[in-house]
Design goal:
two-stranded antiparallel ribbon, Cysteine hydrolase family protein, hydrolase activity, EC 3.-.-.-, Isochorismatase-like_dom, 8 strands, 5 helices, alpha/beta, Isochorismatase-like_sf
């Protein structure tokens, strides 16, 4: 089977767009994610959607309420892989690694939310498992957060630190244009 690049969209659920999710950065991230999805679909390349299903009743991602649903712009197509998780890392308790290995994946291109939580956790595992992993920095976003010492950090600071944690060790942080270039024009469908 030919090698290919897989697009992974993490936790683009309705609850992430609600005000109670917090102050965030990268307001253009959704637009960039939508463009990447359109590019992958036009090239019949594999896409995996990751959705968080919380075990906490107070969570925006508790089952059977609107926050857990994919945002309308990011609804998976019938032939696209969906992974559901209850922890930040999409590799834990899922068949994600097996599915990627079956595809003989050349690269994993990761986008979504939040940069310092589910994106970072999943990307660290991907790198540790030996996948060539890319993070499109402008197609991810984070929320403001207090650091360990109680100092408030802006969403931009949280996002930048998370990308720094990943770049060069677990993944390569790239631009949207660099992500487009990872998908050869002659690509044929490898989806299951």
């Amino acid at each position: 089977m030919n090698k290919t690049a897989v697009l992974m969209i993490i936790d683009m659920q309705q609850g992430m767009s609600w005000p109670q999710a917090g102050e965030r950065n990268n307001p253009n991230a959704e637009h960039e994610i939508a463009e990447l999805i359109a590019h992958w679909r036009a090239n019949h390349a594999p896409i995996v959607h990751v959705r968080h299903i919380s075990t906490e009743p107070e969570s925006l991602f508790w089952p059977d309420q609107d926050g857990v649903l994919f945002q309308d712009a990011f609804q998976p197509l019938e032939d696209e892989k969906v992974i559901e998780k209850s922890v930040p890392d999409a590799f834990i308790y899922s068949d994600l690694e097996k599915w990627l290995l079956k595809l003989n994946t050349q690269a994993l291109v990761v986008v979504g939310v939040s940069t310092n939580n589910s994106v970072e956790s999943t990307v660290r595992s991907a790198g540790n498992l030996g996948f060539t992993t890319y993070v499109v920095g402008s197609a991810c976003f984070a929320f403001e957060k207090e650091d360990f010492f109680g100092q408030s950090r802006s969403a931009d600071e949280v996002h930048a630190m998370s990308l720094a944690n990943l770049h060069g060790e677990y993944a390569t942080v790239i631009t949207q244009d660099e992500a487009f270039a990872l998908l050869p024009k002659e690509h044929t469908s490898l989806r299951d």
